[in-house]
Design goal:
Two copies of one chain form a homodimer. The first copy, chain A, has 476 residues and is an alpha+beta fold. The first copy, chain A, is 36% helix and 27% strand. In chain A, the strands form five sheets. The first copy, chain A, has an eleven-stranded mixed beta sheet, sandwiched between helices. In chain A, helix 3 packs across helix 7. At the A-B interface, strand 2, helix 3, strand 3, strand 4 and strand 5 of A face strand 2, helix 3, strand 3, strand 4 and strand 5 of B. Strand 5 of chain A pairs antiparallel with strand 5 of chain B, so a sheet runs across the interface.
Chain lengths: 476, 476
């Protein structure tokens, strides 16, 4: 049957999750490959999801007083080197520009891997007085990191992101803002993407290069691997000291500013796929879906098409709705709507039209329901709400059922081997144990929860007194 | 007087237009300089204008069926070289990446100066059948061109833009689409930016590298210089042949696609400044202004601030409105509102409040009018409409009064020397005359009008038979 074809082209997720992911990315037409090795082409459907993400996040940023700006794409090597930890973290993975036109440059420039140094350079010049604070800037742009192995949306040599960079008068204010932006990310994931997250701090080992504290939200993919989904960094006054960003306070005293940065990327599209997708393809939560409702004629008679056009224009102000009028068979159209994860479809055939009804089919459960044409708006609204809720609940249940507690090292290693998910384990605070755990199991410390948790007194690895509970896991 | 200070910091436009421009760009806080030579920092106010431009243009593109995508930022040298004219046009001014991380690349990559080659490379892989056509793609991104001399917004080593790239089944369709997008640009300039434009074709000399036809909109700055403000290119099947972009038509015959590209840039911000600005700073048309109405308390008593807050929330759905509650003096706030070109301000003092009135001051004419607080919404709406119209009419009159007709070469050279503006002059069609005119006068051929015009039979330069009327001018 033709309607099976599209689904048949993708691998089942239980058989080979990595291959399933690649298949969905391609068949749902989210991205394409290019001749530029390790770089991706984001196709219209993938980009439309990104635009919705941008719209939502950008309005939240603005509610928090954040303003958008644009900084140069290139960073002179000397500028990158100003903060010691930062350059060590990034220099090995940047692309270097050595020639401008026909001339060799007197100094190499790197294509920005992140823009802390540019913002600092700018702030040093632009901040003078307490009246200039806080600076709450953000930019939407692309960055380049020369990764050795790449994977669509998850790890590539270039990705799109937003990077917020703020400067504050006090350490307290910077600390508070770091957490506030983490909360913005967490709310976006839970309410819009329907992805539950764990919130916490990174260990020193996993911190951002140059930060005194890195906060993270981590989500759990369908295969039980963790995905770092957004980070927010508190820099203290480290960058300010390296770049000389000082202001005179109300008492006319010179002080260094305290800074933060925070970012999310096109990687979030990868999270959507791997959290909600199934063997028929992508499943998008209605609040982020570029098309929420696809109208599909069972026969493309003039009468039906006219009626669908009327329905579309009646619903256009309420939903993101589209009609599939391509010359494909209905079954193929269903399969495409499923592959692309469009939350809801309406089927309308000649007999339906006679009876003044249509069939609504939801993507998440594939449940069908016959609905009177007069009630479509209300009913579709209800179902979309329910899909949003259902996807979140399902992902939440999956997360909850994949958090395990390890009380000793044998148990820890067994779990890491056999139970995909997060492992809660106490930790002594030493880098040595983190390294050993990673070497033995490939699991890394994902986060220390914001609200302290405890399941024992001794480190799950070395048995010395424990300082913190850590969520461990294998990660993308 | 404090309120004079900000204005005193800018040069008068008649005294030194170039300095006036730089002063406005800085004092209106549109951009900042960075340590990266030739690159600019777009500050929040400049970026907010750009965001409004994006919003307007993007929705027009989408109405025309255009979809947004994202292509890699880097182009392998071999890909750039595939189309002969194109590489000749761009290779001398690109930035070259030679190292990724610690490794030297086997092939140099350039940072995209424009993305025709990437889109073509993608289309060659993605287009197979007539069902895949047309492809109407656009991307919003930044590009790098290694300019020797730079100027904020007008010419810099990196700028933000949109670049549309389309592929069509027939030459007719591509030709039609090229002009359609030119019209989108022209409408945007006239209706939103309040900038009248001339529409036309470029001569072969001024065409885009690789195009068979380049269309342009040109606007006239206050100093009488032209600004190329948006271009739309018809590539015919030249790129398709170079990249092998073929499709099978309904008769199962292989054909090359026909392509277009079209772009506008942050340079449009430069146009806004130089068309509408005056000696008090920027003047923004209401339809593009990030803030349309600034509420300014004459005294920051609780009563007045409360009332202003009420007024703001009453108007928030109708206008982009803000309150200036900074601890500066009212006169300074007026001067800032003027410098930033905010179209309208409302002044509210204690006596006004008693009398239930306020004062509205429009930026373009500086006219003041006392208005009852009950009528603010209606009155402000009327005035903003009138400002939009007035700015357009003024710019239109300026354009009309700066178009001159030259009938012989002596007259042409005199006009080019003494009369800033466009010169209409007949042209034989030979590159030689274009070169001579440029050498003698620095004026270049700006465009051949879409609707043919004529003021004589012989070339204004060589006196041989004329083929076309050309608008000549000195340009940014």
């Amino acid at each position: 049957m033709a309607e099976k074809k599209l689904v048949e082209q993708i691998t089942s997720m239980d058989e080979d999750f990595a291959q399933w992911y690649t298949d969905v990315v391609k068949k749902a037409q989210l991205m394409g490959y290019s001749s530029v090795k390790g770089f991706m082409v984001i196709k219209p459907y993938g980009y439309a999801i990104w635009e919705n993400m941008q719209k939502e996040l950008d309005s939240k940023f603005k509610e928090n007083g954040v303003q958008n700006v644009y900084m140069p794409m290139l960073i002179p090597e000397s500028l990158l080197q100003k903060e010691k930890d930062h350059v060590e973290g990034f220099a090995p993975e940047v692309a270097w520009v050595t020639h401008g036109g026909e001339d060799e440059l007197s100094e190499r420039y790197c294509v920005r891997p992140t823009s802390e140094t540019l913002f600092c350079d700018f702030y040093a010049d632009d901040i003078h007085s307490y009246r200039d604070l806080p600076k709450l800037y953000n930019q939407w742009c692309s960055v380049v990191r020369w990764e050795k192995t790449t994977r669509p949306f998850l790890r590539s040599r270039e990705f799109l992101w937003q990077e917020g960079h703020t400067a504050h008068a006090t350490a307290e204010e910077a600390g508070e803002f770091t957490v506030r932006m983490l909360d913005v990310y967490a709310d976006f994931f839970e309410n819009i993407l329907a992805i539950p997250v764990l919130k916490g701090r990174k260990t020193d080992k996993e911190k951002f290069a140059g930060a005194i504290e890195t906060y993270t939200i981590e989500s759990l993919m369908h295969d039980g691997k963790a995905l770092q989904s957004g980070t927010s960094h508190n820099f203290g006054d480290g960058f300010a000291r390296a770049f000389g960003i000082q202001y005179t306070d109300r008492e006319n005293k010179l002080s260094y500013v305290h800074q933060t940065s925070w970012g999310t990327t096109t990687r979030m599209i990868g999270a959507l796929i791997m959290v909600h997708g199934d063997d028929s393809g992508l499943v998008l939560p209605p609040r982020i879906a570029p098309t929420q409702l696809m109208l599909i004629p069972i026969r493309t008679s003039e009468e039906i098409v006219t009626r669908l056009r009327e329905i579309k224009s009646a619903l256009d102000n309420t939903f993101r709705v589209d009609i599939d009028l391509s010359d494909k068979r209905p079954g193929w159209k269903f399969s495409e709507q499923e592959m692309r994860g469009i939350p809801l479809r309406m089927e309308l055939g000649p007999r339906d039209l006679e009876n003044g009804v249509c069939v609504l089919v939801r993507r998440d459960t594939k449940e069908k329901v016959e609905v009177s044409l007069d009630e479509v708006e209300d009913k579709a609204g209800e179902i979309l709400e329910d899909i949003q809720k259902n996807l979140y609940e399902k992902a939440k249940a999956h997360l909850k059922s994949h958090i395990y507690d390890a009380y000793d090292y044998e148990q820890f290693c067994e779990m890491a081997e056999e139970k995909p998910g997060f492992i809660r384990g106490m930790w002594c605070g030493e880098r040595e144990c983190e390294d050993k755990i990673k070497e033995d199991t490939t699991a890394t410390s994902r986060l220390i929860p914001l609200k302290e948790e405890s399941i024992g007194d001794t480190c799950v690895c070395c048995k010395k007194p424990a300082k913190k509970l850590v969520y461990w896991g294998k990660a993308y």
